[in-house]
Design goal:
The chain is mainly alpha-helical. The protein has helices spanning 14-39, 45-91, 93-106, 111-122, 125-136, 146-171, 175-201, 205-230. 82% of the residues lie in helices and 0% in strands. Helix 1 packs parallel to helix 8 (205-230), helix 2 packs antiparallel against helix 6 and helix 7 (175-201) runs antiparallel to helix 8 (205-230).
Amino acid sequence: MHHHNHEEKHLESSEFLRDVVIGMSDGLTVPFALAAGLTGAVENSSIVVIAGIAEIVAGSIAMGLGGYLAGKTEQDHYNSELKREYDEVDKVPDMEKKEVQDFFENLGLSKEIQLKATEEIAKDKKQWVDFMMKFELGLETPDPQRAKKSALNIGLSYAVGGIIPLGPYFFIADSREALKFSIIATLICLFVFGYFKSKITGVPVLSGALKVMLIGALAAAAAFGVALLFK
């Protein structure tokens, strides 16, 4: 007998990775553009550092709050649909059974199996409602801590990303000189970040990495140019 080892590869912790991608992408790009823009207007790195830190704090809070509200909305939506399904199972059970049967019919099961499977599921109200939530509405039970976790993941990712373009300004007094190192460090990080982001999402890694790096570079160049224009 021959045994074939079949290993399925699935992405683990997709919600965590999604949060990190959201936070890190903005964290690298926005403070980088801000620092570049300020460098076009001022020569003192300390001003860039103060403004940059203020932006990172504000951005982390704003992004984290956005993640919290998104997670809370997802939870509220699920609870609302869950209540509606329980009401429908109680008030119009025949219609709900027909929907379950239709699902099995679409799978190509025989009429006998459809009816038998439907009756088995309908014996347990919770199992019945869970089935409808998943297969009729496509909703999975959300993590009750999702909103808090999302806020923390996105906020911290934004802060970590924002420190990278700001780093050189802590050590170099001349903002123009600091900007050179900031550009090198940030573009490298944007490329690496874009590479892993592309790998996670399944798009071509090289073009994905270059695209992320180019967006960050264009944002910084635009901010620097506008600052010079209005200086």
